[in-house]
Structures are given as structure tokens and as C-alpha cells.
Amino acid sequence: MAAAAGARTRGLLWAAVVAHVVASGAGFVKDLDESFKENRKDDIWLVDFYAPWCGHCKKLEPVWNEVGIEMRNMGSPVKVGKMDATSFSSIASEFGVRGYPTIKLLKGDLAYNYRGPRTKDDIVEFANRVAGPLIRPLPSQHMFEHVQKRHRVLFVYVGGESPLKEKYIEVASELIVYTYFFSASEDVVPEYVTLPELPAVMVFKDGTYFVYDEYEDGDLSSWINRERFQGYLNVDGFTLYELGDTGKLVAIAVIDDKNSSVEHTRLKSIIQEVARDYRDHFHRDFQFGHMDGNDYINSLLMDDLTIPTIVVLNTSNQQYFLPDRHIESTEDMVQFINNILDGTAEGLKIARSEE
Ligand SMILES: *[C@@H]1O[C@H](CO)[C@@H](O)[C@H](O)[C@H]1NC(C)=O
Ligand SMILES: *[C@@H]1O[C@H](CO)[C@@H](O)[C@H](O)[C@H]1NC(C)=O
């Protein structure tokens, strides 16, 4: 009798454990220790390196459990784990962990850092992208169109084997953290595309396409890094941080998106027009967009900008520029940009607080 009761109790306990695991998703996230270094070799791992005391890590935990569930449900080959980087600090430092939480995808000898927003969808998308093939072939026109609809910025290599393709693969192995890389043969490329020569690397975005030109555009890696954003963006703090890698100047209309008064909508359309109509002049040096609200920009610049306004940030030297008069038209904006480029607009230094 006693044995039966014991078994029943254990059964109930087990059910409770299972229910807990399913509810929290913790069961799909493996707790990693020293043995990870040896055992990880044959698998692709997505790992959250955390510290028990860190607030951002605690906030990530439920998201991470959802990531574990989702990867499992998708049948993804990527295993999801977490490691207390303070308990296993030597392993963590071997993986280059310096802050918490650090999210990495580990694939053979390669380690990819995740720096995007810490949401389930963004993290899952990153893991699938980086774990998947470096170059994804587009075997048919149908497939090409399908992928074109799903990606606002689409890089495609067109042609057979070549030194350019080798270069493309090399760049992809680094920049896959940011974007997808595709390849296609000439006959599946949309008919409106004219390629001056083959092989070619092109990007489809902003309703058109651009072809990489080694002589004009410099090395492939920096071209892709510059072209991986749409010409005009809805800029938030994270985008601004990402844009820092491009070294570009970022021209932003800071507006209240919900305010339909003409002052707000006009600045937005001025920037949109400059981005579109003056692309050839400015796209190498400038990124364009708008930002909703002035809270973020004011805390970044430690300034007190009132909206609507325009601000141009130099992401490579922490300077910013404000127009010295109202921008009323596209011509005013172009004038302002030219003044920045020829050095007649006065740059302000971002007052940095000690971090
Ligand atoms: C909309 O913007 C205008 C001009 O900046 C401002 O005067 C007005 O108060 C704003 N309206 C609302 C509802 O915030
Ligand atoms: C932006 O900063 C870089 C790095 O200091 C500098 O070389 C460049 O001239 C700046 N651009 C403008 C327009 O001020």
C-alpha cells in the first residue's frame, strides 16, 4: 500500500514538474556548464550568457524560454541554452563574453553575436538566418519574386563560380548577422533588371535595384554594410545604434507621428523626397529617416530639441548639426546637407555623460 501511495505521489509530482516545464518553457533551454565546451561540437547552439544579479538578464529569461519553445516547435536544429557566465567565467571569456546578457550563436568555429532587440521574434529570426545556409539559392523566377516580397532589402549574387562569388561568400560569413544573402542565375532575375556584366552583386530595395561596382563602390563588404538599410527608415534607438556601424551621417526628421499638422508631415516628406530624389548625390554619406518623439534624441544628445525638427548626426564622430533656419522645402534641406558637407554648417559635440 505504502509503495503504491509513494508511486502515486511521485506520479503527481512528476506531472507537476512537467506542467511547470511546459508552462515556463524552461525545459527547452538547456542549463550549460563546463561540459559544454566539449559537448557542443556537433551542434549549433544559441546561448544566453547571463549573470544571476543582472536585471536585463532577468528580463530576458521569459523571452529566452519562449525562444526555446519556438525553436523546438519549428523543428530547428539549433539548440538553445543558457550559461551562468559568473560560475563558468573561464568558458564565458573564451567565447568572448564581456557584458551581460550576451547572446551568441555558435556554429563550428564561428561565433556570432546577437545585438538586436531582445524580443522572441527577432532572436528566432536571427538564429534561423545565421544557422541556415550562408548563401541561399533562388532556383526559379517564382522563388525570386516570393523572396523579394518578404525582404525589404535583398542582396543577390548573379552568375556562376568566380572570384567575386568567393568574395561574396566571405562577406556573407561575416555579415549574415545583419542580413540574408542569396544567389541566382541570370534567367531567374526579373526582366526589368539590366546587368552591365556578369557576375554581379545587386541589392533590391526602395522599389528599385542597385548593382555593385567595384571601382565606384570600394570593397564589397563596406558596400553591403552601407546598402543594408532602406533609403528611408523609421529610426529608433536601436536603428541608430546599428547605423553607427556604417559611419554615415543620419538625417532625421524628429516629429510626433500622431500629430497630423502640416509642420510634422511636411518635414517627413521633405526627408523622404531628398532620400529618393537625391540618392545619387547623398546615399554614400547619408542615411535618411524620421523618429517618433524627441525623448530618445534629447537623452542621446543631452539637448532640448522641440519637435518638429531636423537633426543630422555624424555616427563616426559624435557630432550633430541643427539647421539654422526653418526647413520649408526640399531645396532648403539639400542646402543644409551641402553646408554640412562643405563644412560651413557648425557641428555641435554630443555632450557625453560618463558611462
Ligand atoms: C501638433 O504640432 C503643432 C506644431 O508643432 C503643435 O502646435 C500642436 O500643439 C500639436 N498638436 C498636438 C495634438 O500635439
Ligand atoms: C564625420 O566624422 C568623420 C570622423 O571624424 C569625419 O571624418 C567627417 O568629416 C565627418 N563628416 C562631417 C560631414 O562632418
UniProtKB/TrEMBL annotation:
Renumbered to this chain, the signal peptide range is 1-27
What is the protein's membrane topology class?
Single-pass membrane protein
Q: Name one GO molecular function term.
A: protein disulfide isomerase activity
**Organism taxonomic ancestry:** Eukaryota, Metazoa, Chordata, Craniata, Vertebrata
Q: Which cell locations does it reside in? A: Endoplasmic reticulum membrane
Q: What is the designated name of this protein?
A: Protein disulfide-isomerase TMX3
What residue stretches are annotated with the Thioredoxin domain?
10-132
Which is an annotated Pfam family here?
Answer: Thioredoxin
Which top class of enzyme applies to this chain? Answer: isomerase
Q: Tell me what reaction this enzyme catalyses.
A: Catalyzes the rearrangement of -S-S- bonds in proteins
Protein source organism: Pipra filicauda (Wire-tailed manakin)
Q: What is its EC number?
A: 5.3.4.1
The organism's place on the tree of life at top rank:
Eukaryota
Q: Which intervals of the chain form a coiled coil?
A: none
Q: Which keywords belong to this entry?
A: Disulfide bond, Endoplasmic reticulum, Glycoprotein, Isomerase, Membrane, Redox-active center, Signal, Transmembrane, Transmembrane helix
**What CDD domains does its record include?**
PDI_a_TMX3
